[in-house]
Amino acid sequence: MHLVASDLAFAYPGRPVLFGVDLRVSDGVRLGVVGENGTGKSTLLHLLAGDLAPASGRLDRTGTVALVEQELVTTPGQTVGDLVRGTLAGLRALAAELDAAAAAFDHDAGDLAELSALIARSEHLAVWDADRRVDVALSRLGAVRDPHRRLDTLSVGQRYRVRLACRLAERADLLLLDEPTNHLDDDAVEFLTGELVAWRGGVVLVTHDRELLDDVATAIYDLDPSMDGRPVLYGQPGYLAYRFAKNQALHRWRQRYRAEQKRAVRLAERLDASYEGLSDEWRPPKGSQKHRRATRARIHVKAADRLVEQLKAEAVDVPVPPLELAFPDLPAMSPGWDPADPLVELRSPRVVADDGTVRLDLPGTRLAVPPSGRLLVVGANGTGKSTLLAALAGRVALDRGARAVTAGARLGVVTQEAEPRPSGRAADGAAPTGFDAYAAEALELLAAGELDPDHLVPVAALGLLTEADLERPLAELSAGQRRRFELARALLHAPHLLLLDEPTNHLSVDLVDELTRALQVTPAAVVVATHDRRMRADLADWDVLDLS
What we know:
It is built from 16 helices and 18 strands. The chain has a six-stranded mixed beta sheet, with helices on both faces. 40% of the residues lie in helices and 19% in strands. The chain is α/β, with parallel strands linked by helices. The mean pLDDT is 86. It has helices at residues 41-49, 80-87, 89-104, 112-125, 130-140, 156-170, 186-197, 210-216, 239-279, 290-314, 385-393, 434-447, 467-470, 479-491, 509-521, 533-538, and strands at residues 2-12, 15-26, 30-34, 56-62, 65-68, 174-178, 202-206, 219-222, 232-234, 344-352, 358-361, 366-369, 374-378, 400-405, 411-414, 497-501, 525-529, 543-546.
């Protein structure tokens, strides 16, 4: 198989998405695609699959293609068995075609080359082993195996695992995956990694999973803005090689931008000085040599204009570089506190949901977070990580146990999903912008005595969102931008303790790297619950609470 995209571009009505896409994928190539939310990663997969037509450019592709989207659209009454049969229909048809051709083959006059090609294709796809492969994949991915189970009764993650298992068993020439590890536990990710490394065709995978990029990708295609506005291909395998190369590129970009900004300032200063001199230094006394005055004025104007044109010609239009996280200097303690006292303490917590489901149960457990403490909470989905962080934050009632918090301790909380918060309202009654919501949050915290006005963290100074994004209605922000805003909200009042539930969700790999470094050195206490394997490895020296 081969796939060649040349200068592809695509735009939704009123919104350009992709520009200058150039990439090649052949057998054995496993291309990782990264970038901020909204840069067109999923759109790129649909272009490569042929589901969308590019606005310009050319796409050449040979071989079969299989796309696994984040969400599986089901039809009413469709079952797991229906999906398996539909996905493998092509393989079963090929097996039937081979059986019929072999049975009818004329050994004297038959076309042996045609039969050999059919056998080779069948062996390449291992058509006789397809049902076993599906069963193994369903089992290893933790997917539902009951063929009679209706897909509309499954969760998003369960449906994704069923579709992924089918596509892996199908063995298409080109496999396109959109965030394949989002709904997988560690064992399932290990199985998927092995399948992808052994894939005979080409693979293009959109992912924020840095460990998967390190284990699988032979090259990384970055859709984030570059200095020339085009995506960048980093051809060395491994996430660390990509990270080093991109950091170097960003460093050069920022240096070039600062140099051009300084050049622009010098240009303005010289222009001002030149015309200021025209009105002062180049003017003989009034009433004398008026012709000389005019001549000198013209000469001086021309000299100033030539200087300006020279400086303009030497200037380069360098776009503004991407934002860089400017993590605030958070406090460890407030005056008068005893460093031996924990900021927050839980004893034997038990939380039961309204439907009677036990969400968290840690009998005989004392969990204390001291000033500047570090705690990494791990465990499989459903073991209560989110509930534990909510209990530490005081946002869920305990059915058993007790919670104590140091008086005056400020907590910054980031949940998996954005919670309803004061949003404020623009002066003209329009939908609230990021600035409006941030101001409303600050006023609410101030009224509750949880904000020291001298320690307010300005949202625009964090490097999480541009001022233009903060002036847009929150509803118009992408998932990644809203996630950045939630992180900014948690930092607004300079908390003593940060509680972060799956902080890598919807964030680019660049920001995750920056955030991880900031969490390692901040004086504030930090509790993180995460499934991100690279973050867990980076924070391996923290205290660990495993809820599995």
